Amino acid sequence: MSDVSGDDVVVVGGGFGGLSAACFLADAGVNVRLLEKNEQLGGRASRLEEDGFKFDMGPSWYLMPDVFERFFAYFGKEPGDYYDLTRLDPHYRIFFKDGDRLDVTGNNDEMRQKFEEYEPGAAEAFDEYLATSERHYETAMNKFVYEDRSTLRDWVDLDVMTAAPIGLQLIGSMQGHVEDYFEHPKLQQIMQYTLVFLGGSPKNTPALYNMMSHVDFNLGVYYPDGGIGAVVDGLVELGESLGVTYETDSEVREISRRREGFLVETVHGETHHPDEVVVNADYAHAERELLPDHERQYDDDYWDDRTYAPSAFLMYMGVEGDVDPLEHHTLVLPTDWDPHFQNIFDDPDWPDEPAYYLCVPSETDPTVAPEGHSNLFVLVPIAPGLHDGEAIREEYREKILADIAQNTGVDLRDRIVYEKQFAVSDFGERYNATEGTALGLAHTLRQTALLRPNNRSSAVDGLYFTGSFTTPGIGVPMCLISGEHTAQRLISDNE
Length: 495
Prior knowledge:
36% helix; five-stranded parallel beta sheet
């Protein structure tokens, strides 16, 4: 057994990173108590249920199925023990705002032909791009993602040196990389849209993330029956079987190191005295608000200088009737999306010509909406820190609904029977998200790999961090792996 067997660990925050870390620690014999601020587990993967509609409030794409299979296999399980998966076809539909429409499917021969229609020679370029993407994915996952390389020493070894070509991909941007293969702006957008899930733009995200096209085209896009919330339930059930104790409505207001161990105190005055603490709450919030000044690793200037991933303007809507021709996943893209990214990263403002995403899970799962109705939400990426008062929300609501009608042919305005909005200030209030970011710390060149905050505190022994601020980064699969890294680091520190 590990030397941590019998230790008491408190995990602060029940997002995917915290849920994952709790499972690995409990499996090692640790007594794990997870404290979650909100009324349900899952972090940003919260669920909203009203009037017969069931919404995933946060993540809605099930990508990288191999990561989930690997996670559950560690415990002798598989995803099918907890939830069923449906492979989506098409993966998603794109409406371009010049009237063009394209379905991205799991049939790469079909996609080659479609690419060739946009640009002579693009079919061959598509093959070359995907081959490079697959090679980078396999190398990155095996040598950089599944391995916890969060310090400079971790990068200076033979395995990393032999992967030097992929390391060089950190130097260039995704925009420059994609331009080497495709000239047509629409093809460039198709290869880059997944950057939204990484909280970056084509110009500030390292070219290494071309590996996401392998995820997109080769590994497939799935839907877990019941939504991403069903995956949360699976992790919780696994954790319970391993002995994890979960407490919701338990917001932590203080974490401090004492001579005899830690003090973790909730807003309700409950106190815990664990041997170690794993923080899955927003990293910047934890350092600034939960820890004493002398136990912080980074000062305010550090956090103020970070590039945070976008926030979002979300509308969860229950609608009478069907919403054809929308698909389960639908993207609506302007032919030039540079101004939208500029409004996120360079000149923060509500975009005049937005790119946005529509999710219609009722196209796949009839249980998420009452009979005769559709369940959908719209997500518009916007800059973190924007003012999102009632007036601008109402103005933008009308703008987006009109844009949907104009560019997809689906007019929702007279059919909405349920609606809830969620934006910058809500992310801050519900998740203590710094500047209202919807995702965490963006994957810019300055914030990738070992340049992200460490998962072990350099200021306090026994204090660890997990989630989208640490390595390997943003997204549900990455947070699952982050939880594993953090748990294993805690365990190894005690050997």
